[in-house]
Amino acid sequence: MDPWKGRDILSIRDFSRADIESVLEAARKAMPIAQGAKTSRSLDGKVLSAMFFEPSTRTRLSFESAMQRLGGRVIGFASPEGTSIQKGETLADTVRMVESYSDVIVLRHPQEGAARLAADFSSRPVINAGDGAGQHPTQTLQDLYTIWEGRGAIEGQTIALVGDLKYGRTVHSLAFALALFGAPLILVSPPELEMPWEIVEGLKETGIPLQATHRLEDVVRAADVLYVTRIQKERFPDPQEYSRVADSYRVDLPLLREAKKDLMIMHPLPRVAEIDPAVDATSHAAYFRQAFNGVPVRMALLEMVLGVRG
Ligand code: NCD
User: Fold this and answer.
1) What CA–CA distances, in Å, run from 80 to 94, 216, 310?
2) What's the 61 CA to ligand 1 centre distance in angstroms?
3) Cβ neighbours of residue 208 under 8 Å, at least 6 residues apart?
4) What is the whole-number distance in angstroms between the Cα of residue 232 and the centre of ligand 1?
């Protein structure tokens, strides 16, 4: 039996290292199709439902590009406005409907656990495209792909996760995956936005080298990868609290003087002010390549959960 067919993609914690490696290998094979250099009809006749209850540019469009490059189709909504959710329909009811219209569901929602709930009500595979401050497993797979392709390996790379480690779902997912690969981690955040303790405890249990600091300057020399994140304004209960930490870090050219020559700078995007655009032209900047890598990685995942091997 194919262990991937029909599988929900809810949290990176449901993945073994071997699972992740098989996605990365499949993504590498899908690259020429993602780039438009080769064509494929592997998902001909398949329909993806994209249910986005929160803003998205890259995640939604890269899922659409992935599906369409493989000959599939996409239906859905980019915001709950204009749907019956406005009339008070529950997520469970919406999901029950949508599963009968499509072969796979991609869901982004402000509530932690929403994707797991949707999966309980759907016999079709559900892919979590971000559930509040919870998880963002497909982003993690594209982040891992970017490190693996860029550095040749994930194991042994010292990775600094920088910014909003409290509310940022990308770092919540990524930290666990990096620990599976034995990558030393440095957590860099303002005191108010530290990584939740239960995640830190989970990371400690893996035995990887783990450090935490509030000062970005202290880690620039040691890091192989700086994974910079946006302060998640929309998750702050108090706007004043946000304005106190909004400009905590800025990666700019003077900061990078001390960095390793081959330091890779990543960011899930969108960025606000945490990376100076002057950095874009340096060989350190990997974030636009990282955003593109969402296409081959999502192609690989879609083929796998739909039981089609490209
Ligand atoms: C991230 C998200 O939505 O969690 N964006 C993305 O999917 N690339 C990061 C963010 O919004 O800051």
Assistant:
1) 11, 38, 33
2) 13
3) 178, 179, 182, 183, 184, 185
4) 9
Active site residue 59: yes
The model's pLDDT over 171-218, given as tens digits with 9 standing for 90+, comes to 999 999 999 999 999 999 999 999 999 999 999 999 999 999 999 999
Pocket of ligand 1 (CB under 6 A): 58-59, 130, 136, 139, 169-170, 230, 268-269
pLDDT by residue (tens digit) across 258-294? 999 999 999 999 999 999 999 999 999 999 999 999 9
Query: In the CATH hierarchy, which fold is given to the domain comprising 137-291?
Result: Rossmann fold (3.40.50)
For tokens 């599906």, the residue is: 67
In the chain, where the domains are located = 12-135+294-305, 137-291
Give CATH for domain 12-135+294-305: 3.40.50.1370
Residue 58 annotated as catalytic: yes
| Reported pTM | 0.97
* pLDDT at residue 309 greater than cutoff 90: no
**How many angstroms from the chain centroid is the CA of residue 228?**
13
